[in-house]
Amino acid sequence: MTEFILNLIAWGGYIGIFLLMALENIVPPVPSEVIMGLGGMAVARGDMGLVPLVAWGTAGSVAGNYFWYWLGRNIGYERFRPFIAKHGRWLTLEWRDVERLHAFFLKRGIWVVFVFRFMPTFRTVISLPAGMTCMPLWKFLLWTAAGTAIWNTVLAYAGIAMGAHFRQLDRYVGPVAVAIMAVIVIGYVWRVLTWKPKG
């Protein structure tokens, strides 16, 4: 994975960073930690500037998140109801659960979008309900960009600080990601087996 990212960065420069970060938010297995960390290494070598790196990385993240926002907005809140009625068992959700989540997001959505930008996986998923609750686009873009810019800056500085040792992170990112996914799958299966609708 590291070599692929390095080659794309070398080939595409800032555009490569933009494309990788956009892809990371559409297909989560591409890790932003490694992308921006390697970008930070490029800054340390003098091949890139920190400000344009963060700017292009943030723009890519916002573009990828907008895809999920757009999808949620086009699906809509009420159009989700038949889907819940038919597949609620597999989602372990009833419509009343969706209504509670909807009400909470309408009240606290801005802060949720901002805070979740610092959480793996959830930073992408949260864009879907933002679109479904019709959060104003300018607010979604503003708070997504704000949270993402902070996170990307931290990652870039980590790459600068760790220098060549950042490559070693790739050895751990894969196994850790697999372990996290295994825990999520096991937890989901357990929830499906033990879930009983209240309605």
Automatic annotation (TrEMBL):
<dbReference type="Pfam" id="PF09335">
    <property type="entry name" value="VTT_dom"/>
</dbReference>
<keyword id="KW-1133">Transmembrane helix</keyword>
<keyword id="KW-0472">Membrane</keyword>
<protein>
    <submittedName>
        <fullName>DedA family protein</fullName>
    </submittedName>
</protein>
<feature type="transmembrane region" description="Helical">
    <location>
        <begin position="6"/>
        <end position="27"/>
    </location>
</feature>
<feature type="transmembrane region" description="Helical">
    <location>
        <begin position="140"/>
        <end position="160"/>
    </location>
</feature>
<feature type="transmembrane region" description="Helical">
    <location>
        <begin position="48"/>
        <end position="71"/>
    </location>
</feature>
<dbReference type="InterPro" id="IPR051311">
    <property type="entry name" value="DedA_domain"/>
</dbReference>
<feature type="domain" description="VTT">
    <location>
        <begin position="30"/>
        <end position="159"/>
    </location>
</feature>
<keyword id="KW-0812">Transmembrane</keyword>
<feature type="transmembrane region" description="Helical">
    <location>
        <begin position="172"/>
        <end position="193"/>
    </location>
</feature>
<dbReference type="InterPro" id="IPR032816">
    <property type="entry name" value="VTT_dom"/>
</dbReference>
<keyword id="KW-1003">Cell membrane</keyword>
<dbReference type="GO" id="GO:0005886">
    <property type="term" value="C:plasma membrane"/>
</dbReference>
